[in-house]
Amino acid sequence: MDPGTEVHTGQIADHQGAQPTAPPEQEAPESRGTELELTVAAVDWSAQPQPLWRTHPKHWPDIWRRSIQARIVTGTLLMSTLVLILVGWVMMSQVTDGVLESRRQSAQAEVRAQLQQLSVTIDAANRNTVNQELSKLVLGSNRPGLYDVLLVPTDQAASNAIRYTGLVDSNSIPQPLASSVVSDGSKLWDTYTLINYRESPSVPGLVIGSQIRIDSTGDKYAIYFLFPLTAQQETLDVVQRALFTAGLLLIVLLGAVAWLVTRQVVTPVRMARRIAERLAAGKLEERMQVRGTDDLARLAVSFNKMASNLQRQIRRLEELSRLQRRFVSDVSHELRTPLTTVRMAADLLHETRDQFDPISRRSVELLQNELNRFEELLADLLEISRFDAGAAALDLEDVDLRDIVNRVLENHETLLERKGCPVELDMPRPCRAKVDSRRIERILRNLIGNAIEHSEGLPIRISTAYDDDAAAVAVRDHGVGFRPEEAEMVFSRFWRADPARARTTGGTGLGLSIALEDARLHGGRLDAWGSPGDGAYFRLTLPRRPDVALTGSPLPPRPPDATRVVTELVDVGAPYQKLSGGEER
């Protein structure tokens, strides 16, 4: 209990002088209107299929989540891309290996022929002119455009001069290849590397090296043949571009095929979804178009049969509901005349009850009480019939909800004293709204009366709050409460949480049902929360002006002093769902 709260048994401790507290956070947006309006509002942009190029990028995640076709096409494209990349890599590797191996074998054959010719020529050269002969041989062995020759003396050569052809640079020889040639000159060594030129850019190439020995002097030279692979590189580039183009076209083709195939399946499903939405909106004549005799056609036939059966059942229930409403309305009206006669006789007997013996006097008092309850039941039935017929109307006026709460509490003062139930008020500031005060008073009379009846003598707390758009009243008791599965049933007609429980206020069982209809008629909502042994909490939220749509409530969805949460707040503020059809807006 808050400090400074004055509590008296059967009396009211008013907090109107207390400091205002900040309103709690607003709840998630709510909607109101007809059942058709709720159904149509629930179908957002993403329910309507749109091409990807016509949607904003921020909506693409929604397309991925909601569109089977988008997921299938995207998955097909991704898997096709991965497969084509793998296949392209394997094919490109094999083509590259084949082209390079072919060039390597032809280059080695060329090098062996040139080495054999060089050996014969050098062995026949004069000892004194061997250096000049080496230079001539190097130049003569060169084939411009096919390969260049580089002659490098080893440690066992008398000359340090490096002989080369063209503009090839001696640093084109990788060090591992040079070491292998020097260590073992009996065979050919080769490697792939970049061939550097002094006045032109480097090109990829094949370097083949070996040793030659001059018998007349005993000198050894390392000789390298540098084969540029420019032509092979161009060939591989052409093959790579061809593979890339073919792969791209194949991906586009697979995407188109996947889109067409999934479209054949998804289109009937989307049609079924749209027809189901229209059926839910009340357009019971909608049917799917049947084409062919395949599985999808049989699905459409089954769907249409289901829709026809539902239409017959709903029409039958509508007719039954109409007859029931007509019966209740007719019986209620027909009972008013005999009830008036009985009331007049009962009033006459009640006024002269002191002249009767005790047993007859008690019978007259019971008759009077039951007649009062019967009149209340008849009035409630008439009010329910007006709601069902859509004939209920509002008489709006600007009122302070605190005044209505105080009037209701004054009317229940005798019951409060008999129950010994203290009341705490948390109404620090005026809470004004444009409402029908008669209907709001009836709602609060039902809520407060139920709280008193089920409070078991424990305190009742009534709170009011408002914001720019809404005003709210909450009634909290700490009585028996109700189970989670009963949360949605408390607003049902003639429902009681415990049928064996003695009713002390003479209710009809229609109070909360009428209260819910009154709240809906205002465009408001009535929420219920309960927990066994922890009491109940009812929150009435109303728009402060008729042109305002509720987006939340200034009061919390459940009581702050709740010891445990058994169930979530039950939102029963949606409009009454009638079974009659309507046109889509």
Automatic annotation (TrEMBL):
Its EC number is 2.7.13.3. This is Sensor histidine kinase MtrB. It comes from Kribbella pratensis. PANTHER family: SENSOR HISTIDINE KINASE GLRK, TWO-COMPONENT HISTIDINE KINASE. Residues 1-32 are annotated as: Disordered. InterPro entries: BphY/WalK/GraS-like, HAMP_dom, HATPase_C_sf, HATPase_dom, His_kinase_dom, HisK_dim/P_dom, HisK_dim/P_sf, MtrAB_MtrB. Gene3D superfamilies: 1.10.287.130, 6.10.340.10, Histidine kinase-like ATPase, C-terminal domain (3.30.565.10). NCBIfam families: MtrAB_MtrB. SUPFAM superfamilies: ATPase domain of HSP90 chaperone/DNA topoisomerase II/histidine kinase, HAMP domain-like, Homodimeric domain of signal transducing histidine kinase. Residues 330-546 form the Histidine kinase domain. Keywords: ATP-binding, Kinase, Membrane, Nucleotide-binding, Phosphoprotein, Transferase, Transmembrane, Transmembrane helix, Two-component regulatory system. It is found in: Cell membrane. It is an enzyme of class 2 (transferase). Residues 263-315 form the HAMP domain. SMART domains: HAMP, HATPase_c, HisKA. It comes from the Bacteria. It catalyses: ATP + protein L-histidine = ADP + protein N-phospho-L-histidine. The chain crosses the membrane at residues 72-92, 242-261. GO terms for molecular function: kinase activity.
